[in-house]
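User: Look at the shape:
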Amino acid sequence: MKTERQKFVMESGQAAKRIASIDTMRIVANFSVVVSHWFNWYGPGGTITYSLFYYFLGNIAHFAVPFFFIMSGYFICRSFGRGKGRRQVIRRYSTRIVPIYIFWTLVYALVPGLGLRTLSAGGGLGPLIKHLQKLAIVFQEKPIDFLMTGNTHHLWFLPALIVGCFWLASWTRLNRESWILPMGAVAYGIFLFTGPYAAVFGIERWPYHISVGFLTPIGCMSLGYFVCKKNMQLSVKSASALILVGYVLKLFERLVIFDLTNDPFRQAFMLGTPVMSLGIFFVALASPRFLERPAMSRLSSLTLGVYACHIIMDQKINQFDFFRHGTWLEFFGPAAIYATSIAVVYVLSRVPFLKRFMSNE
């Protein structure tokens, strides 16, 4: 008896049609990034109920970025399978991602110094000049960190995608595809022991954005590439079990590390995180037509723009006090951020000149 995925491939051709369930999971993962940033950066409220909810929800939301990397590795493998050359794939990724990265780097360089409150208070361009001077100092002292983050933490994801693409293309260029997964596992292992596990073993931690920006995409994109190359499939039941294993493992890891470091970012990517993300990816592959709607496809195409934009919305919405006091209203914060980010990016994408900075495609 053929699975739903096998029927989907036979009827439409795997390479010829978008996978609706992947589009859906892009949307879910993007919202999960908003959730994890909201809780990680501002921490839990004062009540025990809120703290517990934050703990379990925050750990689930961390699946998002590894999921994006796994998905990217999977589709890069599909591109190679359709006969596209390495240079063509790298060019496609670079010409799509680099403009988005540069555009939003400039936006985040200007917005903090041109806040509405600053202008209304008659501050003029003074705050902007000071902000740009600080960025220049950071660039001089930590140029690699600056280039990997675009002057704001969350933009590290964009150059990391290009790093992973170069990694996969390099091994295929050497005709060593069989090395991609084991070497990717080694890279992710190095990340674990120089990042989240460093405090446990008394190892000096590597700079965060070098460690995460290079090693995390290499490990996770290698995993996605392997899944595609081997045409791996799991049933929804088996994939759900994998999600549970990854989630429980991540909870255990975070409990061990929680007392050793106060850095929430160090606790986001652990061994359990890509396991959980892989299970979610297999669930999506098992039901390729899930929520197959044009509206979902259009929203999915704005993923990178919404991802890049949401920190601005986070900062603005955080100014409303009713979203911050450890009350149940705080749980509406991520929804408000996500909705306003979608609205802003959608409006900007309607402007021909700005469309390429808002869309994945």
